[in-house]
Write a structure and sequence with these properties.
This protein has 338 residues and is an alpha/beta fold. The chain contains eleven helices and twelve strands. Bound molecules: NADPH dihydro-nicotinamide-adenine-dinucleotide phosphate.
Amino acid sequence: KLILVTGVNGFIAAHAVIALLDGGYQVRGTVRSEKSAEIVRKTYSAYADKFSVAVVPDMSVKNAFDEAVKDIHGALHIASPFMLNIKDNESEVLIPAIEGTKNLLASVAAHAPQAKRVVITSSFAAMADFSKGFWPGHTYNEADWNEVTYDYAKTADAVVCYCASKALAEKAAWKFINEQKPHFDLTVLNPPMVFGPAAHVVSLSAMNTSAWDIHRFLSGELEDVPDTGFWGFVDVRDLAVAHVRALEVPEAGNERFFIVSGRYSYQKTADVLRASPLIAEADKKLVPVGKPGQNYPGADIYEVDNSKSKKILGLKYRSFEESIVDAALNMIDVRNKA
Ligand code: NDP
């Protein structure tokens, strides 16, 4: 069966592609440029008969995916702008996220009659109610929504704008399904911070945002442990499994899943890295010390509920220690080879 994966050159998509190929699927991945196409063709050269690439230069243009969706049986829509150095909220983030999602769904509806399901990689960003702060006593689950408006997001800071782009894109997707009633159904995955090793071609200068978040702890650039902004995490390898299960499990149709292993903090990140026997002493010296053992998520921070994903998708989650140490070892390797 042929599955379309948008943004196939990214961090999460790379793991999803491996899980799909290992699961016997064929994959057609979209990228924005011929240069990215060349890189991913090389990455998956061992699977040349099962992996192909389609260049979609601008997903916010109507009918952008019309060619790319031909003959697919399902799609993972993973592409979305996730960067924090932006100049124009609308053109760089909000429009591609929202219109890209609508255009993908419209193309599948019009040109992929055999497609059964579209899976969208949304985010905890689409669930979090920032007006509540760290919301002590609350347990986040699939019923929660970030209710930010487009008008507010237009001039908000980069983090709020990114979170809004995910919420508004996901809302647009559910609206499309409810109003158009297409021949396929929708499954949405909402991961928080995604850690773990990279499977795609990475460079220190162009690292995806969540990897950069951890890389700071190993680069020597942090003088102290920063304040934690988001307290949930998941390993990218578990999220990849979630994408495949989301395509396959019948009961996952028209459902939303909070894909979260548990809670963490930046202080815990620093403590785990410095305690790991797998990380060299020279690298540990670069990790800020902060206040070891303090500022862990406690009763003053929201809880996270992953029971639906365990029950319906059958997920098992890696520990924070495994995720963060594997991410660190991968980054140290990239740095040492640079
Ligand atoms: P990456 O930056 O590694 O991947 C993002 C992908 O989206 C790339 O293929 C990128 O293409 C593509 N993309 C970005 N902007 C556009 C655009 N304007 N038009 C078309 N394609 C675009 O990030 P991740 O793998 O971490 O993120 C993948 C998805 O997961 C995103 O939807 C993100 O919102 C979501 N997510 C990520 C989390 C995390 O912690 N990493 C947490 C929760 C959700 P190009 O290389 O050409 O820029």
